[in-house]
Amino acid sequence: MTATELSASLATVVGERYRPLDVPVRGGTMRVAVWEPRSGDPQAPTIVAVHGITSSHVAWALVAQALPDVRIVAPDLRGRGGSRDLPAPYGMPSHADDVATVLDFLDVEQAVAVGHSMGAFVSLVLAHRHPEKVSSLVLVDGGMPLLPPPGVAPEDLASAVLGPAAERLEMTFPDLAAYEEIWRNHPAFSEWVDLTTAYVDYDLVPAEGGAFRPATRVEALHEDIRELVDGDSLLTALSNLRHPTSWLVAPRGLMDEVPPLYPDSAREHWVAAHPEVRMVAVEDVNHYTIVMLQRGVDQVIPLVREALAR
């Protein structure tokens, strides 16, 4: 798909404000979605929306719809979506520097960084490495270091934390219908909406022999996930956190399960370690639907608005 071509499913959710473009970064071009403010005001506030570890910019479509007066800049991170062919190294510093390059390219002097899942970790490192680019942080079910299950080796972390989300990256599919079936059976997506269709359709890319595969590169996943536990860049960013920060947590996890990604013990640990961060519990969502169903977005938007008002 070129920067000017949209699938029918994507066109149904992104709206008329949506503009995809390709931005020069290290090793090639990065696919970036921009939702321009409906007013066309060049001085409108901006948020940079950073997606999760196996996700894409499409995950932000409902958030963009809820902020018609705001510019939304949402890149496909290196190794994902329309940026899947950008070369390694991956890792939080690399992603953070890519996001800063995108903001420079678009002449955005400062933005509220809103990160979901791994995007929250990227946002923290962005705020540390490029503090002038970030006014405040909204971390959505991510950002605080993960506490892996006891006894899990680093090389097994992706499967232990992500489960089927990691396993499907190794799979190929004969067509879009077969890929959609995987997602329709996913417990986190029991409520299927137009955004779900667009999200899944955008994620499929051609593979060898006429088959298809998920867009996220396996090597990007494994290089990135290890940093989400105790990566130096993450721990340094947290220890030097100076930006106003809200941390939103979901009550259910990646498989719609309890305990969630951040169980009570993890919430208590990180709130005690970082009292400067405000923790907000979001109700009746899982790790995905906190930004991909309307009831999740309705709880996230007030925190984003509050950050913009600063």
Automatic annotation (TrEMBL):
Domain AB hydrolase-1 intervals: 45-149
Protein name, per record: Alpha/beta fold hydrolase
GO MF annotations in UniProt: hydrolase activity
One Pfam family linked to the record: Abhydrolase_1
Domain of life of the native organism: Bacteria
Matching InterPro entries: AB_hydrolase_1, AB_hydrolase_fold, AB_hydrolase_sf
Organism: Ornithinimicrobium cryptoxanthini
Gene3D superfamilies: alpha/beta hydrolase (3.40.50.1820)
Keywords: Hydrolase
